[in-house]
Structures are given as structure tokens and as C-alpha cells.
């Protein structure tokens, strides 16, 4: 697929913005998916091509958090086990259930996350000094991570918000470390889905990699911001992004 220089520039700029949004909160694909479809891609091809950028963005963000010692690498596997079990169930449900369920579930989930942030803000960032819990010792964390995985397998869009609720709300990670582990979960989801999309020849590599240049840069910018930002500012950004996600889900 031939891409003009002007459109390549637009993809990179949108990629930077989406990389920042996805790393600090979620919902960056609300920008990148329409941009890919404007190029004439069908929705399924745009969705598959977008995953190239998401995958590389997650890898870039995880690397940045790890360099700043904010990625708890020893916790990745325990977190991924219930998350991927839920993701498999969600993917199977998506194959069996009608697509008409997707939009109500997306909108309902984002509205719920918005209300939770207003009513119980500690869910997305416990008080400083709160000890982190282990997944194996916390049944509610297993359930929350499985639920987040199910949602991710079924809908995908907005899964970052649900993952943060599970990681910060049940295991008491702060928002920075929660975001780092969120990227690990998203990377695992995306790896599985990307393999399927590649096998079905749905990925358009040139626009996907151009978009990825932007998302990788955006992820690195977001990591630097997250490390130095006031936690209250991070929560405010997260709240605003849930509102934007609700609006996008309602309109589109």
C-alpha cells in the first residue's frame, strides 16, 4: 500500500498522541483506527494493522518503565495467568455472541469506570505506602484480572481502564507501576491477536510500522511524564480519558 509523505506525517503525529494516551490511560485507538480507515482500509484490516503499533508501543513503554525500575518483572507471570485465561474466554464469547453486544458493553464499562473514579478514587491509585498484594494471596485480584482479560478478549477497546482497576484496586499498585504491568498484559493480548491477524493476511505492514514510530515515541514521552508527574495529575488525566472514551463509544 503506497502512502504519501503527508499521510505518513499525520500517522506519526497521531501515533505519538495515541502512545501517550495508551501508556497513561487507554483509548488511544479512538484516534488511530479512524485514521487508518480514512486511508480506505476496511474496519477489520484497520484493526489488525493498528495492533502492530500497539504491540511496539507496549514494548517501548515497558522498556522505559523497566529502565526507571517501575516495572515489577517478578509479578508479570502471576498477573498474566488469570488475565490470559479470561482473555481466552472473552475471545470465545466474541466468536459466539452477536456483535450487537459490543457497543453496550463498551459504553457500560467506561461509564462504570468513570463513576468508580468519582466515588472511589483510591481504586485507581491507593494511598502512598499501601503495601502491594500478591495475586496468589488475593482471590479478588484473580477475579478482577480474569474479568479484565474477558473484557479484553471480547471488546479490547478501553481494556486499559479495566486492567488499571484490577491492578491498582485489588493489588494496590500505584498508578505508575499499574500502568507498567498494564502494558505487559496488553502486550500479551496483542501478541496472540496479532498472530491470528497475520495468519489471516489482514495486516498492512507499511502504515502499521509508520504508525508504530509515533506510538513508540509517545510511549517513551508518557513514561518520563508518569515518573515525574504528581499522582493527582495522573488520576485527572485518566478520568478525562474515560470521559473521552465514553463519548467516542456513544458516538461511534
TrEMBL record:
Pfam families: TauE. Keywords: Cell membrane, Membrane, Transmembrane, Transmembrane helix, Transport. This is Probable membrane transporter protein. InterPro entries: TM_pro_TauE-like, TSUP. Belongs to the 4-toluene sulfonate uptake permease (TSUP) (TC 2.A.102) family. The chain crosses the membrane at residues 7-27, 76-97, 104-122, 142-168, 180-199, 205-226, 233-251. It is found in: Cell membrane. The keyword Transport applies. It is a multi-pass membrane protein. It comes from the Bacteria. Its main location: membrane. It comes from Salinivibrio costicola subsp. alcaliphilus. The keyword Cell membrane applies.
